[in-house]
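Chapter review. Work through the record for HEPN AbiU2-like domain-containing protein before attempting the end-of-chapter questions.
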Amino acid sequence: MEKITQVIKTLFNLQAHINLSVESLNEIYNNSEIFKGKYLENFYQEKMPLEVSLHTLISNYTIIQFCSFLEEYNEYFNPDFCEAKYKNRILEVRKKNSAGIKRINKWKDLIKFRNELVAHNLRIKNESFFSNQIENLEYKIPNSISEKNLFSGIVYIINSNIRDEFIDVILTFNPFESMLDKMKIISEVVDNEKELEELANKMFN
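Structure tokens for HEPN AbiU2-like domain-containing protein:
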């Protein structure tokens, strides 16, 4: 499989996940009445609203997806990585997409926020986020729903330009291909209450 094929498939898949996440946030925002009076039952903070919980979790995951798309595009959709015969076509698409990338780059702390607070273990240059040395942090990121919609829209345009230029490559894709064809998720139904009770007896004594 050519590298250009791998990159385009990755970018398209990431766009699908971004679209799913952002549209989920839009639906939560537009249907807030559904969540009124609904709280998490087993959370340390009493009466944590379900709407806030879902919004926070999906928002954080969206930040990870934004970064993944940006890194794939910057690092792999370029002539240095892909086959030489696609050089001019890639450069032409990147030129078309430059305005969108420039706008995305205005969220200058996106990768930093992902690395420090969302995807890893709350450490900033080996210092815990909860250290007294850490204070007055500021991150410029796509945080509001309008910003996330803007980012998602830019991703759509970027991939549309890729699709239009590389339709010959895309037509070779197997439309029935699934990520699950390449892996197996191993899971099982467990008696979590029983196991936790047994483990608690061992761990608390």
